[in-house]
Amino acid sequence: MNVENGRERVAAAARLVVKVGSSSLTTASGTMDSDRVDALVDVLAARAAAGTQVVLVSSGAIAAGLGPLGLSARPRDLATQQAAASVGQGVLVARYTSSFARYGLRVGQVLLTADDMMRRSHHRNAQRTLARLLELGIMPVVNENDTVATDEIRFGDNDRLAALVAHLIHADALVLLSDVDALYDGDPRRPGGARRIERVLGPADLEGVELGRSGRVGTGGMITKVEAARIATGAGVPVVLTAAAHAAQALAGQDVGTYFHADARHPGTRLLWLAHATTGRGRLHLDDGAVEAVVGRRKSLLPAGVTLVEGDFAAGDPVDLYSPLGTPVARGLVNFDAAEIPELLGRSTRELAATLGPEYERELIHRDDMVILEPTTESRSMRHV
């Protein structure tokens, strides 16, 4: 890997995902800022004119709905958030449509929920739709479908959504734009300031870094952006994190913001989907021996090592595996319904086959259908501002 020239991958990207946060598109009162929208569109239109396929992942629907609904701050309850999104999504897309029309570009709205990433048929449909829009010369404007998403099927922030979209469309690079110009090793507002982290090669470069929480109108923060960068780079997609005001420089490969180098060895599509686009439908609690077998030796999970089953799930659903300390250690696609498993616990597959039939002489989760859950950014040795 050529560390010095890593940013050239962004400048040369033939397919690019750009994510912009709510605070970069709205005024202090929460209404859409036309000048900010136009400035972003100017940059993206120029890149599109140069031949790059661009997908825009844009927050701002709920924020855009605050003004028309007479709300002074982001609502806390889900129903009002959905109402604001319903009003604001139209405002947001209309503004983008008008602004891109100045360059003769058309946009297509794509609204996704986490469920669309979890269910493989939905996943493939989203992939085909985005690919076809790009083939037709349409710029997709992607957002979470806040009007129908429930707490159980929410991405939680558009940073994660952008990382998954970058993987979905096999993007060459991901650019995360917000109101923060880079990742710093501390709070730059404090006396003495802080040092900009120019590039991140791996988790070791983030040891001890302080990450701020969400801002005024968004749901994300530096935590979610670093986590999104981890997802994208793990899929082989380099990431630039910077302020929306530096979008042109970032897309040109200039030294702005923080550059996250892509992992040269990344998991296949299926495992990345399992790790980052699914949510466990239930829990299997393991004993120490099973944790060592699954995590330490990457073995399949057998019924003998499971002590407790929680949740209502069907065979083929993703479930989370927990250690005796209550820590999630892996996620996998289970081979049995939740109702079947209690009878299997603590028993060997040979014994189960003898008493219940040969179809029970198999693992609960095969190692090829399992991913080890790395500690999240929030659980690493990082402090929050």
Verbal overview:
The chain is α/β, with parallel strands linked by helices. Helix 3 (61-69) packs across helix 4 (78-101). The two termini are 33 Å apart. The longest helix has 24 residues, at 78-101. Helices cover 33% and strands 17% of the residues.
Question: Going across the major beta sheet, what is the strand order?
Answer: 3-4-2-1-5-7-8-6
The residue-averaged pLDDT reads 84
How large is the count of helical segments?
A: 12
Strand content: 15-25%
Estimate percent helicity: 25-40%
Give the SSE string. HEHEHHEHHEHEEHEHEHEHEEEHE
Radius of gyration: 22 Å
Structural class: alpha/beta
Distance between the termini: 33 Å
Low-confidence stretches: 150-154, 213-220, 376-385
Biggest β-sheet, characterized?
8 strands, mixed
Q: How many distinct beta strands? A: 13
Task: State the shape.
Answer: elongated
